[in-house]
């Protein structure tokens, strides 16, 4: 199906309002600038509290969103924001964390991992792994159930969530689910060539908000050594063994250059016995999640994620 007119109008508005040169950088900056201007905010959550997670590299800022702190412990989604590993923080994705907590009725801990180019790979994935383990170890303090944890991320954050889901197989804690929203799954193959195994990198590499040029920029900023692209912590689909990972929900968008690698990852997980569900948003684009007030189509991406978190992380009904 063609790109719907509302989505095209939003993309054109964001691109036209971007500073010169930003089109070859990380587009999330223009997106979140627009959100601030339009006062797009997430729903209210009963408890929102800033945290600092200790790590060998220093404290990792984080934020707890708890929809029912006085009730019995609920499950928790550890959330990693998008932004191409170079942009984003707790505030840029506050509306998404609020949305997840309010509508799933599970707690959310959003993680402000270190960003490139000041902190290159593997700093972000180290912070994501450390934060996930910390949430499990401090579950009682947070009012959550360590037996019902999920990792969730959009874009670069989706790549981090996928990497953490592999890392915890050996280092714990067990996860109930991994939710990957149009994730960055493979940093190999840039610059993109005609023989790419992911045709969407070419078919939707321009004019659909996220561009292949922007992804090339991400790779250059995030990886100090191009050879690191083959490391599964940077490119989860390159892992030698995917078995034993948590059940996965992968949300892809039709007009996203990352569509094919996201869907390939779901197939690769399923091939080794990991339950994996793919939801492709027809007419959707990268960055659409959380844009309900601007883009009604985004609800098609949000609802399956919320349903999975609600069904997986909520306490069993007595």
TrEMBL record:
Name the record gives this protein: Esterase
Pfam family name, one: Abhydrolase_3
SUPFAM superfamilies recorded: alpha/beta-Hydrolases
Keywords linked to the UniProt accession: Hydrolase
Top-rank taxon, per record: Bacteria
Source organism per UniProt: Thermobifida fusca TM51
MF (Gene Ontology): hydrolase activity
Top-level taxonomy: Bacteria, Bacillati, Actinomycetota, Actinomycetes, Streptosporangiales
Keyword Signal: no
Domain Alpha/beta hydrolase fold-3, residue spans: 78-289
């Amino acid at each position: 199906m063609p790109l719907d007119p509302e989505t095209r109008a939003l993309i054109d508005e964001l691109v036209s309002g971007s500073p010169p040169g930003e089109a070859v950088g990380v587009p999330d900056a223009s997106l979140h600038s627009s959100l601030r201007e339009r006062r797009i905010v997430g729903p209210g959550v009963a408890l929102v509290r800033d945290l600092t997670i200790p790590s060998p590299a220093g404290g990792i800022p984080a934020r707890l969103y708890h929809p029912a702190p006085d009730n019995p412990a609920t499950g928790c989604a550890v959330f990693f924001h998008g932004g191409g590993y170079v942009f984003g923080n707790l505030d840029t994705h506050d509306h998404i964390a609020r949305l997840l907590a309010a509508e799933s009725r599970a707690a959310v801990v959003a993680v402000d991992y270190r960003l490139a180019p000041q902190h290159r790979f593997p700093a972000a994935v180290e912070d994501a792994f450390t934060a996930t383990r910390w949430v499990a170890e401090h579950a009682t303090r947070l009012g959550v159930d360590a037996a019902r944890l999920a990792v969730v991320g959009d874009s670069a954050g989706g790549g981090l969530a996928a990497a953490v889901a592999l890392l915890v197989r050996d280092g714990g804690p067990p996860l109930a689910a991994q939710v990957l929203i149009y994730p960055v799954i493979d940093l190999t193959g840039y610059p993109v060539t005609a023989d790419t195994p992911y045709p969407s990198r070419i078919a939707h590499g321009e004019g659909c908000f996220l561009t292949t040029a922007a992804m090339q920029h991400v790779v250059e900023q995030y990886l100090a050594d191009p050879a690191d692209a083959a490391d599964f912590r940077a490119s989860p689909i390159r892992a030698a063994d995917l078995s034993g990972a948590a059940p996965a929900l992968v949300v892809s968008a039709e007009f996203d250059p990352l569509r094919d690698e996201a869907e390939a990852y779901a197939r690769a997980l399923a091939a080794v016995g990991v339950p994996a569900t793919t939801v492709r948003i027809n007419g959707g684009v990268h960055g659409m999640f959380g844009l309900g007030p601007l883009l009604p189509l985004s609800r098609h991406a949000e609802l399956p994620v919320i349903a999975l978190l609600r069904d997986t992380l909520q306490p069993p009904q007595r």
